[in-house]
Amino acid sequence: MVLKKLLEKLNYDLINGDDNIEIKGLKYDSRKVSRGDVFVCISGAVVDGHKFIKDVVSEGAFAVIVEHDIPITGEISSAVIIKTSDTRLALAYMSAAFFDYPADKLFTVGITGTKGKTTTTYMVRDILEACSIKTGLIGTIETIIGDERIPSENTTPESYMIQEYFHRMVKAGCRCVVMEVSSQALMLHRTAGINFDIGVFTNLEPDHIGPNEHSSFEEYAACKGLLFKQCKTGIVNTDDEHAGMVLEGHTCKLETYGLTRDASLYAENITYTHDGGHITTSYDVKGTKNMHVELTLPGEFSVYNSLCAIAVTEHFNVDEGLLEKALYNVKVAGRVESVKVSDDFIVIVDYAHNAMSLKSLLTTLREYNPKRIVTVFGCGGNRSRQRRFDMGEISGEMSDFTIITSDNPRYEEPEEIMNDIETGIRKTAGKYIKIADRGEAVKYAIDNGKRGDIIVIAGKGHEDYQEIKGVKYHMSDRELIEKAAGKQ
Question: Which residues are registered as beta bridge partners of 177?
């Protein structure tokens, strides 16, 4: 591909050489550069790609994209040097061009928000797939392309990877893609150049504020809002108090969902049912669509997520019977995921790994009037000790019994982490026990389960490893549950 073609949507200055040269590959990792590539210098939080210009040219890079002034010395004078104001933006636009603009060949759905992104993406995909609309997915847990599942490192990958995945989805026959779009991804231009058919806003809460994330809540909201300046239709949770803040300056058509009649699509007659080893949430959809919904996922947040999914699928010719069935059957690994082990009690695996998410989860489950809530959790090592105190206090206040165990101890001793959690619990009257081995802790919970209990295994969710002293060992909460129940 000719370099000039890759740059067709960029404003740039040609500093050295000829931009009509043929390019073989596009790279942003200096370690992966080979002869004939164009290398994009990304100024990262830890590493600055501009430091490796001499290295990549010596490896045979034909061209380098920069955002800083650099001296054209003899060592790099053979390379084409292109300067632009923002190399992350350049990478996004160049990646789209490199893969021949695959987003234009797909119906694109981007979902942003503090919570609900993962579950909603799966709901939308499952519904569309059930209606024979082949749909790819990009998110926190994995990327799905046809039958291929690729574990994720970030909620939203780098722009080059997004465009490569889109390209592979097109080749696999996908008609649609639904993806999580994080505030970081929007801030760092990972989705730049994609004109989403639908942008979704689930909710906004104070989170991701701090070093290497967002400097303030206002910046966090503004970054979320960027999605609604690059989509055709915005589908918005109108009940969220920060919706107006996120939508400031939006350029898209708006549709709304919520629990009040102010929304174009809303829920009424919400019912929470707990019967032995089974939980259901049901409600009536009103407004632009009228139907009854039954979910095997708990809580008001599941009502919001499913309403959102229904609103998205309204843009497709979806059979209502298939829609009802898909909503009932939807399950997301590690997100309030029910693992069937008994007709007497329920076991739920969830990713809740901070005080806010644990409190939200336990509050939701309390609405089902369980005999007891038994919570099994630990906290990650080499992270905030305050999180341990807070999670311990929340569990002590809101659980009937807590089993403190190990999570990812990393380079800390599990007992020290557990002692910090215990400090939080001891501020309450909550009953608890400490069992360092996570498998034994899960077994203890299941062996002592009583009729009407809800047992929560929190913290790791979909993760299938435990990190100890720099090594990741295979460990899945679902597998621990099945082993404890004698199903392995």
Answer: 108, 136
Lowest mean pLDDT among 216-220, 260-264, 325-329, 446-450: 216-220
Domain holding 427: CATH number?
A: 3.90.190.20
Burial zone of 20 (CB within 10 Å; 0-12 exposed, 13-18 middle, 19+ buried): exposed
Residue-wise pLDDT for 322-343, tens only, equals 999 999 999 899 999 999 999 9
Q: Binning pLDDT at 50, 70 and 90, where does residue 10 land? A: very high
* pLDDT value at 211 more than 60: no
The single-letter DSSP state of residue 2 is B
Question: In degrees rounded to 5, what are phi and psi of residue 288?
Answer: -70, -10
Is residue 192 domain-shared with residue 292, that is, in the same domain? yes
* Same structural domain, 241 and 165: yes
* Per-residue pLDDT at 346: 96
Asked if residue 206 has pLDDT above 70, the reply is no
DSSP string for residues in 431-474: EEEE-SSHHHHHHHHHHT--TT-EEEEES-TT--EEEETTEEEE
Task: Assign 118 to helix, strand or coil.
Answer: helix
> pTM for this structure?
0.91
Distance CA 357, CA 459 (A): 10
Task: Count the residues in the chain.
Answer: 488
Residues 6+ apart with CB under 8 A from 44: none
Instruction: Name the DSSP class of 45.
Output: S
Give me the residues paired with residue 468 across strands.
410, 471
Query: What SS3 class is residue 349?
Result: strand
Bridge partners (DSSP) listed for residue 254: 234
CATH code for the domain of 51: 3.40.1390.10
Helices (H), 99-177: 117-130, 159-171
Phi, psi of 224 (to 5 degrees): -60, -40
Q: Coil, strand or helix: which one is 320? A: helix
Write a three-state SS string for 89-116: HHHHHHHHHHCCCHHHHCEEEEEECCCC
- Of the candidates 268, 300, 267, the one whose C-alpha atom is nearest the C-alpha of residue 281 is 300
Domain membership of residue 66 as a residue range = 3-95
Q: In the prediction, which pLDDT does 212 show?
A: 58
Dmax over CA atoms of the chain, in Å, equals 77
Do 259 and 283 reside in the same domain of the chain? Answer: yes
pLDDT average, residue stretch 179-194: 95
Last residue of a domain, one of 276, 294, 329: 329
Count of C-beta atoms within a 10 Å radius of residue 329 = 12
- H helices of 226-299, where? 243-247
Residues 19 and 77 in one domain: yes
Which one of 95, 111, 128 terminates a domain? 95
- Distance, C-alpha 409 to centroid of its chain: 23
123 and 265 share one domain: yes
